[in-house]
Structure formats: C-alpha cells, structure tokens
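stage 2 :: seqdesign
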C-alpha cells in the first residue's frame, strides 16, 4: 500500500513538473514578436512637443521616466515592460503615435532607413538570442530599450548589438 501511494505521488509530481517545463518553454518561445506585417505611412511628430525640444531630448526624458522599470514579457506599463511594450508606450506618450504591439510589426512601420542615415527617433530592430528585439535610437549609436537582464536601459550599438541589427525604420518625419 505504501509503495502504491509513493508511486502515485511520484507520477503526480512528474505530471506537474512536465506541465511547468512546457509552460516555461512556451513563454521562452513567444519572445517579443509575432509574424504579422504592417506597412503604415511615416507619421510626423506631434506639435504638442515644444518647438525647442528635439526628438533626442524627448527620448532622454522618456528614458528618465522609465529607467528602473523591470523587464516583463508581455508587459506594457511601469509595473514591467517588454521591448515592444516600451516602444508602444514611449511613442504614444511622447509623440502621440500608435505603434503595433509586437516588435516584428513595429519593425515594419514607416520607411526603411540605411544605417548611415539613422537619426534619433528611428526604430532599431535586432535578432538577439534567436528572438526579435526592438529599441529606439536616442542619439548617435545610443538606443533606448527594455533589456531582459537590466530592464529599461540605454545601450550602445557596439560590438554586441551592431552585428545583431537587422533593420532601421523611420516612423517620425
């Protein structure tokens, strides 16, 4: 009788463990993107930003408002945010521009820009660790994004990020 209870308890524990492993794999596989493609027009920045305030200054201000927010897959607010949720919130708050929810859809917004023509406000789209990742250029070679390990942060297009850069899109004219 004791062996039978031990065996049933072991099987129940294994079922739970299998379910947890499946849930983790599902979350890891979801990343920040889906497969849909959207090609809307380039949208000019809103006139509600002051005439003396540059796009770079606005984005640094957004960074100051968001820094310290932790990364959370599927997150869209200051309780936790993922890369595409951050871009969606920043563009809505700072420029009154609505972006799609996923990084892949966001990476197809506006017009494609050559890397030599990048400027603040351009979306920078990466493939990182097998998944999609997106940020916004704030200044020359500096971009704002939600890092899985550091939360909302500024990074440089350095030896790590530069080779992973796949596309630059201009959504602000």
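stage 2 :: out
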């Amino acid at each position: 009788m004791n062996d039978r209870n031990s065996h049933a308890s072991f099987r129940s524990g294994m079922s739970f463990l299998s379910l947890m492993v499946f849930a983790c794999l599902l979350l890891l596989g979801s990343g920040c993107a889906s497969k849909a493609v959207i090609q809307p027009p380039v949208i000019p920045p809103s006139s509600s930003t002051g005439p003396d305030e540059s796009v770079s200054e606005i984005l640094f201000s957004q960074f100051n408002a968001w820094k310290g927010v932790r990364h959370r897959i599927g997150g869209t607010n200051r309780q936790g945010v993922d890369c595409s949720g951050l871009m969606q919130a920043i563009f809505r708050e700072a420029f009154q521009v609505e972006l799609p929810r996923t990084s892949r859809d966001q990476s197809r917004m506006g017009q494609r820009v050559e890397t030599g023509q990048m400027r603040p406000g351009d979306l920078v789209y990466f493939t990182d660790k097998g998944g999609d990742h997106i940020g916004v250029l704030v200044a020359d070679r500096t971009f704002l994004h939600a890092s899985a390990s550091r939360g909302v942060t500024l990074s440089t297009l350095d030896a790590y990020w530069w080779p992973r850069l796949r596309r630059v899109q201009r959504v602000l004219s």
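stage 3 :: structure notes
- Confidence is low (pLDDT under 50) at residues 17-51.
- The longest helix spans residues 2-30.
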